[in-house]
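User: Can you recover a sequence for this backbone? Please restate the input before giving your answer.

Assistant: Of course. Working from this structure:
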């Protein structure tokens, strides 16, 4: 019992056990065992202590969080494998180093940044754990929740500090996504909601042309449905929940469906929407709904960003001609084009070109982000050729899988 008591007392928590302390602890356990029980079996006591040491070492090694032990002088005594990974260091290179001193080498920057302070015995008197959030750039961009606690011996004397490093990058990213989502959603929905409200008030007061007001309300409502649907797609993509339902489908039919749904819009804008499709139909492994969304977004953009009397053309072909390996779909327009500088940012979330401002075309800046993600999920690629005031050509290339 007493042996267990001493073990528990010395190894107060898994986190605060370090190699050097284990050596002292081992001796103390053995001594305590002998003093209290007068037991002669030295081998048995030693084995019990060694077993306990092994257990603790194994826990520290396999801990899902980083753990760094610092002495009273703030010099590193232990770095577990997860801390090595998070800070981009190897334990053997940092043992005995005081992280408060400035980094000499570039790759020690994160190590110094994450472990940048220690307190004196007096300052640590209340024994509280101190929590901070640290942003690192090396070895990759990460946000760590670092907690520092004092480590004391059984008499309460300060032995050093333990710092636990918890990777909170993903949680923080999701927080940012959520706030982006809320701010964009409310911002984007505000205008169509205000228009609907205004039109409804006029209808109630029996003012204005009923048919026109109802048309406006329907248009605003459609716009809101589009915004919500885009935002939900983006949220699914960003949370890694976007999964494809790959099955045999006709790419030709997918293109035809997407075109059919936009013919009326093209007509209304006086734009000639044409197709160039292979005569032979064949099935391939794709997610037809997702690919239709890709085509819908590309075609919708081509029509939106082309002024009246323009031309939009969709081409589908299998390349190379002799032994097809890819499905290639091209959406081409002779619209306002995309400035060279904008082309790099085109597939990022919420990005809208500067040249479309005066066109007063509604949009969320999410369409191409969704397109790119769906194409990526199909292991495909998307490229663009565009010149301002001349037009744009989007080319989607997906590996051809027939089963
Ligand atoms: P949006 O809802 O604004 O259309 P997208 O992500 O679909 O969002 O497109 C991002 C931006 O790319 C658009 O705002 C526009 O500036 C530009 N863009 C996309 N397609 C075209 C095109 N065919 N012609 C000209 N500009 C385009």
């Amino acid at each position: 019992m007493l042996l267990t008591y001493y073990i528990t007392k010395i190894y107060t928590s898994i986190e605060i056990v370090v190699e050097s302390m284990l050596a002292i602890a081992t001796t103390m356990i053995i001594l305590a065992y002998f003093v209290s029980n007068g037991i002669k079996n030295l081998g048995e006591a030693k084995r019990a202590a060694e077993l306990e040491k092994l257990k603790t070492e194994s826990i520290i090694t396999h801990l899902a969080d980083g753990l760094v032990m610092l002495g009273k002088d703030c010099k590193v005594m232990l770095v577990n494998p997860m801390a090595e990974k998070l800070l981009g260091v190897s334990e053997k290179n940092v043992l005995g180093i005081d992280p408060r001193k400035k980094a000499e080498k570039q790759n020690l920057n994160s190590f110094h940044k994450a472990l940048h302070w220690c307190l004196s015995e007096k300052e640590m008197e209340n024994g509280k754990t101190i929590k901070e959030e640290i942003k690192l750039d090396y070895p990759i961009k990460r946000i760590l929740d670092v907690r520092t606690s004092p480590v004391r011996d059984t008499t309460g004397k300060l032995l050093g500090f333990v710092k636990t490093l918890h990777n909170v990058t993903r949680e923080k990213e999701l927080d940012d996504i959520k706030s982006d989502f809320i701010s964009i959603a409310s911002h984007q929905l505000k205008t169509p909601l205000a228009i609907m409200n205004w039109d409804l008030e006029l209808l109630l007061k029996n003012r204005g042309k009923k048919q026109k007001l109802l048309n406006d309300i329907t248009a605003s409502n459609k716009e809101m449905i589009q915004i919500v649907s885009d935002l939900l797609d983006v949220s699914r993509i960003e949370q890694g929940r976007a999964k494809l339902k790959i099955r045999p489908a006709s790419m030709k039919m997918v293109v035809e469906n997407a075109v059919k749904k936009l013919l009326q819009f093209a007509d209304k804008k006086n734009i000639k929407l044409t197709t160039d499709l292979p005569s032979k139909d064949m099935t391939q492994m794709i997610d037809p709904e997702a690919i239709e969304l890709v085509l819908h977004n590309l075609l919708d953009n081509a029509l939106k960003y082309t002024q009246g009397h323009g031309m939009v053309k969709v081409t589908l072909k299998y390349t190379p001609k002799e032994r097809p390996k890819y499905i290639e779909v091209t959406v081409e327009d002779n619209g306002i084009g995309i400035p060279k500088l904008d082309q790099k940012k085109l597939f990022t979330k919420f990005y809208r070109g500067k040249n479309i401002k005066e066109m007063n075309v509604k949009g969320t800046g999410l369409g191409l982000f969704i397109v790119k993600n769906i194409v990526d999920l199909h292991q495909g690629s998307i490229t663009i050729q565009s010149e301002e005031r001349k037009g744009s050509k989007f080319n989607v290339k997906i590996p051809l899988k027939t089963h």
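That completes the design. Residues 1-27 have pLDDT under 50 and may be disordered.
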